[in-house]
Design goal:
The protein has 266 residues and is of the alpha+beta class. It contains 5 helices and 15 strands. The strands form 2 sheets. Strands 5, 6, 7, 8, 9, 10, 11, 12, 13, 14 and 15 form an 11-stranded antiparallel beta sheet that branches. It has a 4-stranded parallel beta sheet with strand order 2-1-3-4, with helices on both faces. It binds NADP nicotinamide-adenine-dinucleotide phosphate and manganese (II) ion (MN). NADP nicotinamide-adenine-dinucleotide phosphate binds next to helix 2 and helix 4.
Length: 266
């Protein structure tokens, strides 16, 4: 059966050149390249770095078909192959020599002025103040009040996002085969005026984090999901939890999460 392939490319010279070569090779092998995005396609190819990958995921609302990334960007943690490996991609895909790596996502519900707004992140969601103000957040886990957090904000990372912003904040790297969420404090304040936890907290997938901004201070909040931000002037409450939405990355024979960590970080 003929396979339909969509390609998403950023506009760097290397990416566009890679796209041109890939299209020619796919065409010669008998694949059908779709002119635009289609959610019924058999494969989505993303050419760029992690930023481009995240852009495609959001633009197409978490595509359900297998996704393969070609790294022309900087780090390329999501990306499986380099532009020099296009023949390997075509060979492995044609011969079904690949596995799919499911990646879970994190979801936030924001209740603001009586309405509920939902955002999903593949890497993380961040709850922070507007205009660089600190935030004071009443936190509960699984419905039990834990503490009033004061600081820059709270970052809730998925295992896939644990190597991104979370890692820069001192959070742990998590193997994506584990279903959990990591709550990492951003510049927690610890003074005689304020108290906040200083290490990351790991939550099982069935528990959610409840947050009520401290109204006496300020209830304006900025929610950032994978780098996209949305400002809410008044927030009544927020719930952050494990999401049922997953994406599936195509990985080839030699893929190993920890080898990738080593090659990108150590
Ligand atoms: P960006 O500011 O260009 O990205 C920052 C870096 O994070 C880039 O090198 C990017 O890789 C890398 N990255 C993205 N997802 C990753 C992952 N899952 N594991 C390891 N590294 C990852 O913005 P962007 O490219 O649009 O990416 C958005 C992400 O940037 C956010 O989700 C957040 O996690 C991260 N970020 C990090 C910091 C920080 O570490 N201080 C600050 C802001 C945002 P590429 O070079 O391949 O694009
Ligand atoms: Mn980037």
């Amino acid at each position: 059966m003929e396979k339909n392939i969509c390609i998403y490319t950023n506009n760097t010279h290397t990416s566009l050149n890679t796209e041109r070569i890939l299209k020619k090779k796919l065409d010669n092998t008998g694949f059908n390249i779709l002119p635009g995005y289609c959610d019924k396609a058999d494969l989505l190819v993303c050419i760029g770095g992690d930023g481009t990958f995240l852009e495609a995921i959001h633009k197409y609302d978490f595509p359900q078909m297998p996704i393969i990334g070609i790294n022309t960007g900087h780090l390329g943690f999501f990306q499986e192959i380099m532009p020099a490996q296009l023949d390997d991609l075509i060979f492995n895909y044609s011969h079904e020599q690949y596995t799919l790596q499911p990646l879970s996502t994190v979801k936030i519900d924001v209740k603001s002025e009586g309405r509920v707004y939902e955002h999903t992140g593949l890497n993380e969601v961040i709850i922070r103040g507007m205009d660089s103000y600190s935030v004071h957040l009443n936190m509960s886990i699984g419905g039990s009040f834990i503490e009033r957090f004061s600081g820059d904000g709270l970052l809730v990372a998925t295992p896939a996002g644990s190597t991104a912003y979370n890692y820069s904040l001192g959070g742990s790297i998590v193997d994506p085969r584990i279903n959990l969420l990591q709550v990492t404090p951003m510049a927690p304040m610890n003074t005689t005026a304020y108290r906040a936890f200083t290490s990351s907290i790991l939550l099982p997938s069935e528990l959610s984090l409840g947050i009520i901004p401290d109204m006496e201070q300020d209830a304006s909040i900025c929610v950032v999901y994978d780098g996209y931000s949305k400002e809410y002037p008044t927030v009544e409450e927020m719930t952050v939890g494990f999401s049922d939405t997953k994406i599936n990355l195509m990985r080839f024979k030699n893929y190993d999460f920890w080898t990738k960590v080593k090659s990108k970080f150590l």
